[in-house]
Design a protein that fits this description.
This protein is of the alpha+beta class. Among the domains are: about 10-100, no CATH class; about 140-185. Helix content is about 40%, strand content about 10%. It has 11 helices and 8 strands. β1 and β2 (about 50-55) form a beta hairpin.
Length: about 350
Amino acid sequence: IWSETTKTAYSPVLRKPNPFQTRIQFWEAYFLSKLSRGNTYVLKRRDGRGLVTGLYVLDPGRVQPLIADDGSIFYDLQCDNISGITGGVVVPAREIIHDRWNCLFHPLVGISPLYANGLAATQGLNIQGNSANLFGNQSRPGGILVAPGAIDAGSAQELKDNWHQNYGGKNAGKVAVLGSGMKYETVAITPDDAQLIEQLKWTAEVVCSTFHVPPYKLGIGNLPTSSNVESLNLEYYTQALQSLIEAAELCLDEGLGIGEGFALGTEFDLDGLLRMDTKALIEAEAIGTKAGIKKINEARRRLDLGPVEGGDTPYLQQQNYSLEALAKRDASDDPFASSRSTTSATAPAAPAND
């Protein structure tokens, strides 16, 4: 059973990983590196005792894993002034926390989910770029200048440049005067043919699927019919966050030297993420305390309330018996003998003979 504790050897670096980042900023950089590049490299700084006193997220573009002939792993680090690396240096694997995922081609090289959705993302960018160009032309698509007869290439280019200069871009919508039988025909595509909204929605859903994020979290598609806040957040956690969080916890344990075989470990506090609505939370805590599963002060802590005197002991009603007491009763020759003897002992005495 794990309980929260504070250790002078590890707690300071968890509260303040390095001088220029808070712990929230550190973990933001940690997960952004893993999500966008597939790898997170964290350099460890130690004191004279060998304890880790600083953690620095490195630029993944400046780190390269190396494998020696005997199988030992090293990391080639390039200049990174923020982390204190002033020149190229090769460090052993024990000085690096390397979190990676999607190792399709090598166990030491992770790949970002962007590798799978690159085409869809590019399509979405092209769609938005085309829309920006259209609206930059006052929502007027291109067109064709039609001459009544044949014209040479030089005249055609001159007419095109003149039209674009006077009636294109910011000048779109101005009154044009055409002569010599010239006419302007608009080339347009209907919204139904373009399916702009549908295409953008599809590309966004593909990106969401590669990161395992429910689309409604990004405002895409229909909202779920369930109104249970806890179940929605639990779905988000199990689909998108659980593997990332558990991998980070394990890497941190091994990096700090408190992995398996030690009585210490690190865990993210998920109460804020998986928090229920107020009514459901109070009902759940009330059931837990009445059943003797939780202490009153434990339930009050979930509700952001302070402890009360006598609240550090589980409570049950008096008529509840322990399993051990019931087992002893059932193991006797006549489990219900005590109830009969009690009945006979309390029966009224026979009247005395005068």
